[in-house]
Specification:
about 0% strand, mainly alpha
């Protein structure tokens, strides 16, 4: 069951909830048209780009992208020089973009809930593993690069 406990599964669940809410329980609420679709597309594209850049950099460094495994290297280059968690940040942007795209106004609270879930379930345990594994290198990296942006 651990293979189900990965961020893309949680993201898919949030996206499904938002889509269902927009289709079945909109209560006539709307973000107001084309601007929401445009911003949703920008957020979605930005989220996908962030995740792709991060995955590419991790593959280039020959380390794992799986959140429950300890990476063999501390990746600090590329997008990781700007954010310690670009894949998770990309996931949040994807969810926010799709909520706007779907016009799922009542699903907006899913964004901070998803962010909280990612932080508690994945980010903090990962950072603890990185701290134990990479010690001084991690301490320097943590001081230099912010968790999100």
């Amino acid at each position: 069951m651990r293979w189900l406990d990965v961020p893309p599964v949680w993201l898919a669940g949030g996206v499904l909830i938002a889509w269902l809410q927009a289709r079945l329980f909109s209560l006539g609420l709307s973000f107001g048209g084309a601007w929401a679709e445009f911003l949703g597309g920008v957020l979605l594209g930005g989220g996908l780009l962030l995740a792709l850049l991060a995955i590419t950099e991790m593959r280039r460094q020959k380390t794992t992208v799986l959140p429950h495994q300890t990476p063999s290297r501390l990746v600090q280059s590329g997008i990781f020089s700007r954010s310690r968690n670009p894949i998770y940040l990309g996931d949040v942007l994807i969810l926010a973009g799709l909520i706007l795209w779907f016009d799922a106004v009542l699903s907006l609270p899913l964004i901070p809930v998803f962010l909280w879930l990612l932080e508690k379930r994945f980010v903090i345990p990962e950072e603890d593993r990185m701290r134990r594994t990479f010690r001084a290198d991690w301490a320097r990296y943590e001081r230099k690069v912010r968790r999100w942006i």
